[in-house]
């Protein structure tokens, strides 16, 4: 009887340890899932960007400061959130580790030193924190870290994409490109700026190429891979929009993320009479800003360009 009791106690202890380990493992998995999901990050950056446009500098800084305490920041081309954070900190007299962020801007995100020196608020910061040799070294590190073979392959793919438009080999080029992209991303990582540099400077435009992949056999696989990399903060939501827009334009001739109406200019376009919330949910699910914000910013940019 005593032996049976001891065995029962040991069994309870083993179950308890197993339960604790499973709970710890589960909590770690939840933490890891939270850490890699950058979709909330992108949505908050749009809010900070709108605050900055409205000259609400203090609120914009607070938004970015809170965000960067949770996420390792990225510096998107259209939003420059790390650069704006440093500039706002100088303007508002906030005490942050400017050196760390400037190092990342140059080494990881390829922001040229000469461009940074055009920002009056950064000239003193650069002089106080870096020697000329250190700044040059950071620029060299960015160049050295670029996977130039990967970049070369992307350029070849984009050239093939553009030269095949409207020709008989167009579908086959899209099939080849999507297979190459899946292989490259799985083996070399996503082609973000730290990996391949600013490829737009070499006239390589991934969103344009993605728009053409809607009919490819591996569309669903690539879409899942792209979403995975958006959550990791490697891909950007606009790239997913282009991929999905190409698919729905191809099949339905309608805008999947925007409300459209049938017009004489686009007689084949199908009107989408869904509620505005439908589009907002679709956009938020992949990290896009609200349609109202996008239209508002686009109108401001057009106004400034006139």
TrEMBL record:
KW Signal (keyword) present: yes
Protein keywords: Signal
Signal sequence interval, chain numbering: 1-20
Domain of life: Bacteria
Name of this chain's protein: Uncharacterized protein
Source species: Chryseobacterium kwangjuense
């Amino acid at each position: 009887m005593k032996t049976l009791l001891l065995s029962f106690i040991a069994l309870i202890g083993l179950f308890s340890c197993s339960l604790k380990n499973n709970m710890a493992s589960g909590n770690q998995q939840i933490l890891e899932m939270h850490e890699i999901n950058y979709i909330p990050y992108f949505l908050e950056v749009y809010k900070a960007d709108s605050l900055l446009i409205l000259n609400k500098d203090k609120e914009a800084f607070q938004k970015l400061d809170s965000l960067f305490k949770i996420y390792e920041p990225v510096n998107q081309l259209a939003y420059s959130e790390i650069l704006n954070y440093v500039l706002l900190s100088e303007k508002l007299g906030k005490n942050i580790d400017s050196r760390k962020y400037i190092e990342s801007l140059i080494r990881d995100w390829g922001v040229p030193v000469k461009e940074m020196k055009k920002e009056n608020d950064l000239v003193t910061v650069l002089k106080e924190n870096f020697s000329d040799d250190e700044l040059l070294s950071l620029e060299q590190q960015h160049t050295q870290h670029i996977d130039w073979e990967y970049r070369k392959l992307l350029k070849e793919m984009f050239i093939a994409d553009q030269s095949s438009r409207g020709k008989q080999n167009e579908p086959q080029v899209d099939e080849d490109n999507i297979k190459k992209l899946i292989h490259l991303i799985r083996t070399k990582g996503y082609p973000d700026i730290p990996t391949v540099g600013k490829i737009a400077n070499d006239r390589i435009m991934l969103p344009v190429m993605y728009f053409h992949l809607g009919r490819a056999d591996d569309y669903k696989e690539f879409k899942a891979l792209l979403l995975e990399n958006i959550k990791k903060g490697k891909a950007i939501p606009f790239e997913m929009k282009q991929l999905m827009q190409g698919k729905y334009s191809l099949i339905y001739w309608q805008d999947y993320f925007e409300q459209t109406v049938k017009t004489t200019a686009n007689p084949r376009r199908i009107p989408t009479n869904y509620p505005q919330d439908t589009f907002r949910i679709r956009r938020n699910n992949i990290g896009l800003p609200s349609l109202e914000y996008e239209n508002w910013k686009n109108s401001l940019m057009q106004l400034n360009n006139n």
